[in-house]
């Protein structure tokens, strides 16, 4: 249905009122309904945890944290790869009244310290191989209590914390209190803390489960990083709420990924476009029995219909897409299993509204015509932490969230994302801010001027490419290596192109559109 005033596209009505409870209460209520069912499996060792054991572990972690001074308003930064213990730590910290903030385990100490300071995180959960980085970051950020999974040295051992015999804390349970602070670049600039409340996260899980029919006999693979909103809300929390068995693996490694699907008979798989490309093309896929797969859902970046169809044919399963962002607590649209349109990101979740707005005029686009996607719903974030200007630029006075993504919604309500209004580059589902790389390039003594754009790449989606005006002699390969030493892997430059000048407006703004045209001609040539 469309409003004549603003062309508001409406998702289906919610089937039931949204629960008014905290995230851990919501998940634990579901766990207690099926105590003997296996909830989590370590994909490498095969170690299993039942719903009852998970519920107990959440309470013990909450009690252990509280015994060390963690309480309402405290922030736990999770700096670790996926494991059974990751959701225990996240839900346990929330159960103690605190806030969780996932950090990329590929971060160096400087990036980690920045997030710790910005989020005001004085507690860190990490794994033994990352302890030195966490300790260095904590020192830079002013100190923290570090909980370590594995050999802890002088830090607090996860097992000893879990052995705490204190009563579980009983903090106030306000659904509108802050629950999570994932970091995202949003529509502009460098990473900012995205304020998600218990209510927004519970709403999004509930909306998703209404639209996407997860079943209790489904087995899902949690290889997408849990610090990312896709891996946390859509895979982990939704899987636990639905009663699925969740198999965790630390990261994507081709052979281990395929072996986990085969060994644990995974039925539903959430992936990003580079993994979909792998499933479509890599010969290794044929060496494993993947016949258990029924549905593969892709998100984090648009995926072409041709790749979608190739995977569906090769694996003989349904392939579909959805659209979401950190600022939506996870998800805005999803393809229902009986209503799949190749190349589309599906239809709006229940209780969600959308508009397609012409960014040049501010007028609503006609059905099927391109515009910037705006959405509104109970899953919308509450703003960026300590970033009033960025919040005002993203959330309108009447609650619409500007996504920065361009696309169309047709007469049947199917969303197709075609481009991005924002300048951010998406590399394997991660957002890279050109301004951040440009600022780094400007610190190099042989760089006189620079601009960074995204170049399409079959495996990564996009790669950052730097156009550089050199000061004296400059070796592009050496500059690439210099940048790679100073950034997390997905921010590394895919190419350096030397040029005589960076195209700019009279006001000095980089004309990225012109650079993209030049780059397209260069790559075609």
Question: What can you see in these coordinates?
Answer:
With 525 residues, the protein is an alpha/beta fold. A five-stranded antiparallel sheet has the order 1-20-21-22-23, with no helix packed on it. A five-stranded parallel sheet has the order 5-4-6-7-8, with helices on both faces. α11 links the parallel β16 and β17. Among the domains are: 126 residues, Rossmann fold, CATH 3.40.50; 100 residues, ANL, C-terminal domain (GMP Synthetase, Chain A, domain 3, 2-Layer Sandwich). α4 packs across α5. The protein is built from 15 helices and 28 strands. The chain is 31% helix and 23% strand.
Feature tags:
525 residues, five-stranded parallel β-sheet, alpha/beta, Rossmann fold, 23% strand, five-stranded antiparallel β-sheet, GMP Synthetase, Chain A, domain 3, globular
């Amino acid at each position: 249905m469309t409003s004549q005033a603003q062309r508001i596209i409406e998702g289906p009505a919610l089937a039931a009122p949204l629960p008014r409870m905290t995230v851990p209460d919501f998940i634990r209520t579901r766990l207690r309904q099926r105590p003997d069912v296996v909830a989590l499996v370590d994909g490498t060792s095969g170690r299993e945890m039942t719903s009852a054991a998970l519920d107990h572990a959440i309470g013990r972690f909450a009690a252990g944290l509280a015994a060390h001074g963690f309480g309402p308003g405290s922030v736990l930064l999770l700096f670790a790869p996926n494991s059974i213990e990751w959701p225990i730590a996240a839900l346990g910290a929330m159960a103690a009244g605190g806030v969780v903030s996932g950090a990329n385990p590929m971060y160096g100490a400087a990036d980690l310290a920045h997030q710790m300071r910005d989020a005001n995180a004085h507690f860190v959960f990490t794994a033994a191989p990352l302890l030195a980085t966490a300790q260095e970051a904590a020192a830079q950020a002013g100190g923290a209590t570090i909980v370590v999974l594995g050999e802890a040295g002088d830090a607090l051992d996860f097992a000893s914390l879990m052995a705490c015999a204190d009563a579980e804390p009983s903090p106030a349970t306000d659904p509108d209190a802050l629950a999570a602070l994932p970091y995202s670049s949003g529509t502009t600039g460098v990473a900012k803390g995205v304020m998600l409340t218990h209510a927004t996260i519970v709403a999004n899980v509930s909306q998703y489960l209404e639209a996407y029919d997860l079943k209790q006999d489904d087995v899902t693979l949690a290889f997408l990083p849990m610090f990312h909103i896709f891996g946390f809300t859509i895979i982990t929390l939704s899987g636990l709420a639905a009663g699925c068995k969740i198999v965790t693996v630390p990261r994507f490694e081709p052979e281990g990924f395929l072996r986990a699907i085969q060994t644990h008979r995974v039925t539903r798989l959430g992936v990003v476009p580079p993994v979909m490309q792998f499933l479509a093309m890599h010969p290794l896929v044929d060496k494993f029995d993947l016949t258990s797969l029924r549905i593969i859902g892709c998100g984090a970046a648009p995926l072409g219909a041709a790749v979608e169809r190739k995977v569906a044919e090769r694996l003989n399963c349904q392939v579909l897409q959805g659209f979401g962002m950190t600022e939506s607590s996870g998800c805005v649209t999803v393809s229902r299993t009986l209503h799949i349109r190749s190349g589309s990101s599906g239809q709006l979740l229940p209780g969600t509204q959308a508009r397609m707005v012409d960014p040049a005029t501010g007028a609503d686009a006609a059905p099927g015509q391109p515009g910037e996607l705006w959405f509104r719903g109970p899953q919308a974030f509450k703003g960026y932490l300590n970033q009033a200007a960025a919040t005002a630029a993203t959330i309108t006075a009447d609650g619409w969230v500007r996504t920065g993504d361009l696309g169309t919604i047709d007469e049947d309500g199917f969303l197709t994302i075609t481009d991005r209004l924002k300048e951010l580059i998406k590399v394997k589902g991660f957002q890279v801010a050109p301004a951040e790389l440009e600022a780094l390039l400007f610190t190099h003594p042989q760089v006189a001027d620079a601009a960074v754009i995204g170049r399409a790449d079959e495996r990564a989606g996009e790669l950052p490419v730097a156009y550089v005006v050199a000061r004296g002699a400059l070796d592009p390969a050496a500059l690439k290596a210099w940048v790679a030493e100073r950034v997390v892997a997905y921010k590394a430059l895919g190419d350096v192109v030397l040029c005589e000048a960076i195209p700019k407006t009279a006001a000095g703004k980089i004309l990225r559109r012109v650079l993209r045209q030049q780059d397209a001609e260069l790559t075609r040539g």
